[in-house]
């Protein structure tokens, strides 16, 4: 639910609640726009559209996918700000959760001062951290919740979508995490319109009630409005719809006393031996085999075993001695033999300009690698594949950079390692390749990329779980005008 509140005339908050992939996943999120009457609404709407587009299908690495989605949302908002001066101050804060029903987990990504709480066993735990100075003071225990609510800088945030370019975002800019989501658990995602006015204990009291989620959300919004309704109020509630299981305490097993063993039959070990001998005798008789000799008793059998064991040890000792002598002789013959000359191997180095790109990919520590076409005079000849072995990487070229196949080379221009999870390539031309890019899974995104004199643009190799049904697709679109 979302509500404008008592003082605002427009609502800059939006929320997401959507089932994905036949209900295995649930997407839940709260976005709070910042930046004036129009700007906040636009920023929140842009972020929501990007999230719905990028999170339509959940991949193997949910956390990385969520971080990339927030990075793309940040880029979309920053680009729109450059196009419209009236929106130059807009941004938004957001908290997004993906609930994995099958595996009883939730994953989240967060930026700003929207919040994520977990309610379990009548206890409310704040999962996310407010990315603001006052939020830091409260989370670190330096000021109380009451004092934080009254602090004059309560709503001054340090981080948000749209405040910085994607190139300036650090690895820790977005807060992420995963946690079990157990039967009976509830998740609360909310904007600061709730938490600026309603205390944690009051929120917890509402979540304890045996009411529907709709009733609880409505009651939380009413409490915020009753306390003044100074801002837009948005509440998203998620509940694990299975009842929590209460297990009975396990009782310790009673130890078996020696009194339970019949003294006429000796110890338990003796009983086992007697029983085994009787069963063996009965099986022989039932099979109709004649017994030429009586079956030895346990003591007679043990004596025979000792004699046979001594014989076996003697034979093994002799064999070990023979093997040792043979090993020494073979080692001597091998060490005194001259080794063969190594065969010559032709090692073809990368072209110098290509090596610069490869080294940049290997040594770069951030998420967005910027290259200039002018630095390469617009052309790089390829005689070995450029390998990308990164979790995620955005490669942006200023100007058009042509990767051209060397006449003596027949391989691809770029190879993505199987462990790559997201790679985006912008403003590159591939020329003269049989196959330009080799990629695993759905990890390659193209922006303003062209292929000339190339038979196969992308070869995608998919690895799926053994024997499972597979659904999904990935589309590329030819655009007559490059999107700037």
What does this structure look like?
β6 and β7 form a beta hairpin. The protein folds into two domains: 2-239, PPM-type phosphatase domain (Phosphatase 2c, domain 1, 4-Layer Sandwich); 352-461, no CATH class. The chain is α/β, with parallel strands linked by helices and 484 residues long. The chain has helices spanning 36-54, 62-83, 133-139, 145-150, 192-195, 200-208, 213-226, 268-287, 298-336, 352-363, and strands at residues 2-3, 13-20, 25-34, 91-100, 105-111, 115-120, 123-126, 175-180, 186-190, 233-239, 368-372, 379-382, 386-388, 392-405, 414-416, 422-431, 435-440, 444-447, 450-452, 456-461. The chain starts with a strand and ends in a 23-residue tail after the last strand. 30% of the residues are buried.
Q: At CATH's second level, what is the architecture of the largest domain? A: 4-Layer Sandwich
Number of strands: 20
Going by helix content, strand content and strand pairing, the class is: alpha/beta
Percent helix: 25-40%
Find the CATH topology of the largest domain: Phosphatase 2c, domain 1
**Residue-averaged pLDDT, rounded?**
81
Uncertain segments are: 253-269, 283-301
Taking the alpha carbons of the first and last residues, their distance comes to 37 Å
Shape: globular
Task: Give the radius of gyration.
Answer: 35 Å
Order of helices and strands: EEEHHEEEEHHEEHHHEHHHEEEEEEEEEE
- How many helices? The count is 10
How large a portion of the residues is in β-strands, by DSSP E?
25-35%
Task: State the domain count.
Answer: 2
The description of the largest β-sheet is:
6 strands, parallel
* CATH C-level of the largest domain: Alpha Beta
- CATH superfamily descriptor of the largest domain: PPM-type phosphatase domain
């Amino acid at each position: 639910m979302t509500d404008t509140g008592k003082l605002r005339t427009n609502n800059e908050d939006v929320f997401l609640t959507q089932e994905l992939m036949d209900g295995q996943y649930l997407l839940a999120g709260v976005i709070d726009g910042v930046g004036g009457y129009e700007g906040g609404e636009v920023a929140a709407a842009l972020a929501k559209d990007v999230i719905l587009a990028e999170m339509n299908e959940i991949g193997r690495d949910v956390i990385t996918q969520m971080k990339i989605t927030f990075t793309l949302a940040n880029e979309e908002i920053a680009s729109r700000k450059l196009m419209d001066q009236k929106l130059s101050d807009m941004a938004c804060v957001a908290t997004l959760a993906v609930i994995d029903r099958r595996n009883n987990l939730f994953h989240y990504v967060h930026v700003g001062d929207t919040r994520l709480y977990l309610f379990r066993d009548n206890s409310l735990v704040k999962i996310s951290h407010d990315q603001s100075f006052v939020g830091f003071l409260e989370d670190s225990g330096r000021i109380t919740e009451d004092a934080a609510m009254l602090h004059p800088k309560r709503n001054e945030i340090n981080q948000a979508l749209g405040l910085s370019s994607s190139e300036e975002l650090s690895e820790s800019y977005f807060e992420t995490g995963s946690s079990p989501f157990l039967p009976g658990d509830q998740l609360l995602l909310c904007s600061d319109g709730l938490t600026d006015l309603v205390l944690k204990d009051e929120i917890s009291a509402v979540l304890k009630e045996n009411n529907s989620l709709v009733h609880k959300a409505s009651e939380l919004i009413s409490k915020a409005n009753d306390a003044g309704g100074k801002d837009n109020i948005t509440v998203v509630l998620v509940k694990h719809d299975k009842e929590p299981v209460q297990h009975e305490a396990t009782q310790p097993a009673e130890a078996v006393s020696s009194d339970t063993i019949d003294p006429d039959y000796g110890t338990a070990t003796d009983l086992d031996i007697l029983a085994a001998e009787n069963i063996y005798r009965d099986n022989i008789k039932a099979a109709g085999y004649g017994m030429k000799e009586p079956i030895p008793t346990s003591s007679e059998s043990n004596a025979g075993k000792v004699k046979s064991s001594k014989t076996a040890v003697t034979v093994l000792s002799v064999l070990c001695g023979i093997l040792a002598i043979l090993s020494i002789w073979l080692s001597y013959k091998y060490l005194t033999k001259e080794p063969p000359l190594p065969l010559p191997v032709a090692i073809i180095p990368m072209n110098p300009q290509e090596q610069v790109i490869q080294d940049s990919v290997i040594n770069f520590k951030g998420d967005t690698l910027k290259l200039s076409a002018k630095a390469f005079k617009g052309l790089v000849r390829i005689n070995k594949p450029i390998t990308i072995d990164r979790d995620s990487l955005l490669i942006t070229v200023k100007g058009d950079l042509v990767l051209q196949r060397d006449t003596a080379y027949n391989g691809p221009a770029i190879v993505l390692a199987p462990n790559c999870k997201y790679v985006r390539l912008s403003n590159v031309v591939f020329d003269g390749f049989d196959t330009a890019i080799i990629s695993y899974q759905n990890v390659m995104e193209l922006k303003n990329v062209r292929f000339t004199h190339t038979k196969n643009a992308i070869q995608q190799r998919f690895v799926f779980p053994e024997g499972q049904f597979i659904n999904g697709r990935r589309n590329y679109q030819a655009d007559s005008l490059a999107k700037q």
